[in-house]
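Quick one: co-fold with protoporphyrin IX containing FE.
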Amino acid sequence: MDDLIKDINEKYNALGHDPNVFLKGLLLSKPLNYWDYIQLDTLMSLQKPKTDFKDEYIFIVYHQITELLLALVSHELKQVIEATAIDQGMIAEKVGRINRYMQVMDSSFGVMFRGMNWDDYNTFRIALAPASGFQAVSFRLIELMCTDLINLVKPDLRASHTTFNATEMLKDVYWQDAGMDRKTGKKSLMLRQFEEKYLAQIVAQAETMQGKNLQCIVQNITDLTDELKHELRKMDYIFNVQWPLSHLRTAEHYLISKGQKINSTGMSDWQKYLHPNYQRRVFFPALWNADELNDWGNFEIV
Ligand code: HEM
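Sure, here it is.
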């Protein structure tokens, strides 16, 4: 106890703060409890259904769970990107964590796939248009922490981008296809809303991450360990193939009725757009062979 008091004295004297004031504050403050620490009341106040359909609550909570898992992904990526030295063991550990979060996202998707009443979902979702999961910016910011923007530009449009210009390149990014008619340049309300809110932030993220993202870090490592290579390929696959396919199967479950495609809330050509083989989003192209890249989205890895 004496040692502890001595340490506290030293710490607060070094900070230029009276240790007695700190100790008195400690005496006065209430002991911590679970609900305040976790911010439980705030958390439980964040679900605001737009309709009276009971399953809308599931839809909201599950999207919020996804956002929190993506916050964990982003938290790990930041640490890799901000590390001052390259440590392959540390990167493999962090990417392994990311893969566990993504596996949770993927394996829990049954909550959406089979977990809502089909008729109720197809009724309450009408009240949500033009909002769409497409507008979840966390996915876009994470992509830019993982790879250079050029890898997110549609493959057939890459050659025209010989120098890095985030604003110009984002006009040709794969996700424009969810809401832009490339012949007329006309954009859907879903896409316009999204860009008005987030485009400046996405441009800033692309500029900050250029040359610093995970793909750049990894491509500078000459003797990539098998462990790190395995975790990176797994990450590329879960993020860009496995989860997108689980998501697409769910969209098909709800949005195909009697063999007919139903309009989505965001009004995209979703069945074509959402397939990984159409998007060709690959974070670490150097870790895949030509056949795998061609067949992207159509093969499984173990
Ligand atoms: C019943 C459940 C779901 C259905 C039927 C569904 C359907 C769709 C559709 C049709 C699109 C294409 C854009 C549009 O036209 O609206 C889309 C995009 C998207 N959704 Fe969902 N979605 C569901 C759940 C989720 C969940 C839980 C998330 C997690 C946040 C999510 C995230 C996304 C993302 C990120 C995109 C854009 C994908 C990309 O650009 O590659 N969706 N969704």
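If it helps, The beta strands are 256-257, 260-261.
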